[in-house]
Amino acid sequence: MLRLTFLMRRKQGLSREEMQRYWLEEHAPIVAGHSRALGVLRYVQAHTTGDDHSRLTGRRGDMEEPYDGVAEVWWESKDAMFAATRSEEGRNVDRILREDEEHFLDLKNSVAWFNYEYPQVNPTPENIVATERSSLVKLYFPLRHLDSLSMEDAQWYWRTHHGPVIRRQAHGSGIIRYQQVHRDELELTTALNSSRGSEIDPYLGHAEVWMDRSSMGNPTPENKAASRRAYEDEANFIDFSRSSMFLTKEHVIVDRR
């Protein structure tokens, strides 16, 4: 499947709560109503929580400010996305969505990219959702790589070295599900951000982790050791100062899987 990740910052003058309310109550129905015309397989809004996200970074030091939310869109394939969005109807819908985004988003400081998923810890069926009424949260870690590495080398290390490090200690870390989502389709990503006036460089991709709040900050020896090993390996390829980390709750708007 082809996936779109859209990191959102709210329009100046809006609180996070106001932006998220408009996004969920006003914008989501527009997307849902046109989702078949766009060929959308799944559409999820991940709303950043009110937690103190600075506590997440730990020894990583200062990181970028959390985004206010993440829009996630899936298509069955790249060809399916092309067929739907490049039709006359698809282009009209994109215009409608873009115009509505201007009501609640700072598009210059938001950024999107196309990507593919690499599941690492993945219970089946894939129905784990961090809903508002559950104790689950979804951690987002949009990351940029060190300047000493190419994009290809950083993604290779992330996938083949760091993935196994996290998988081996998932139980001790309280991880329920963990995915790597790698940026790809560079020309499509450039065109998308240009159409929305983004001035932010896309990330290498993002890690997403589902956890139960009861396991977070658990000062057990196993948890401390797992956190230390994760950080030590992340430092081999991640530029923490140009990366971000925040918790979200998910709202599943469309799901036709």
Any chance you could write out the topology, listing elements then pairs?
Elements: E1 2-8, H1 16-33, E2 42-48, H2 54-57, E3 69-75, H3 78-85, H4 88-101, E4 111-121, E5 136-143, H5 151-168, H6 170-173, E6 175-183, H7 186-195, E7 205-212, H8 221-234, E8 246-255
Antiparallel strand pairs: 1-3, 1-4, 2-3, 2-8, 4-6, 5-7, 5-8, 6-7
Structure notes:
By secondary structure, the protein is α+β, with helices and mostly antiparallel strands. It is built from 8 helices and 8 strands; from the N terminus they run βαβαβααββααβαβαβ. Strands 1-3-2-8-5-7-6-4 form an 8-stranded antiparallel beta barrel, surrounded by 4 helices. α5 packs antiparallel against α8.
Spatial order of the strands forming the largest sheet: 1-3-2-8-5-7-6-4
Please write the CATH class name.
Alpha Beta
CATH architecture level-2 label:
2-Layer Sandwich
Number of DSSP E strands: 8
**Could you give a short account of the major beta sheet?**
8 strands, antiparallel, barrel
What is the domain total for the residues?
A: 1
* N/C terminus separation: 11 Å
**Mean of the pLDDT scores?**
95
Assembly type of the chains comes to single chain
